[in-house]
Design a protein that fits this description.
mainly alpha; 2 domains; three-stranded antiparallel β-sheet; 8 helices; 53% helix; elongated
Length: 167
């Protein structure tokens, strides 16, 4: 598996290929079969991987909170909703986004300070165990520039599908 600090460089080498593979899958993959393949790879790779040694997702993405998630976090932090909203949140069309990037709740040792109540978007990232992956391949390719596991998944899927560079 690629080291987290090498992911950008590695992705740059296969970026074009990954986007071509996305198109290939759109045209040739069966929705259910691809979901099974992603789920199998997801379970296998996440079982072996310690995300706290990476946390690229926490460093690269902005967290979005749902209304019901906000209460849990400000209570955990021991502050009022108003204090939490003023200090940490920017209200957007999509919802409530964390102002800080990298995530201000990511400790230097890689521990999430709000682990007990972190938003679903964080818990579910990179979403490779969710159904209908065929329809979210663009985000999966983009995730492969951040997450070593997704990078590895795409490399393995290329082998499964016999996908070769065509340029």
């Amino acid at each position: 598996m690629i080291e987290p600090w090498k992911i950008k460089e590695a992705f740059a080498k296969v970026e074009r290929e990954n986007y071509k593979f996305r198109i290939y899958l759109k045209n040739h993959a069966d929705v259910d079969e691809l979901d099974e393949q992603f789920l199998e790879l997801h379970n296998e790779l996440f079982k072996e991987y310690d995300c706290s040694k990476c946390r690229n997702c926490c460093k690269e993405y902005t967290v979005t909170f749902e209304e019901n998630e906000i209460e849990q976090v400000y209570k955990l932090l021991g502050i009022t909703k108003e204090e939490f909203m003023d200090k940490y949140i920017e209200e957007t069309v999509e919802g409530y986004d964390l102002k800080a990037k990298p995530c201000c709740f990511l400790a230097k040792n890689g521990v999430c300070e709000i682990e007990k109540c972190k938003p679903d978007g964080c818990k579910d990232y990179p979403f490779t165990n969710k159904p209908e992956r065929l329809f979210s391949l663009l985000s999966i390719v983009e995730c492969s520039s951040v997450c070593p596991i997704v990078f590895e998944m795409l490399e393995r899927l290329k082998k499964i599908y016999g996908f070769k560079r065509r340029y």
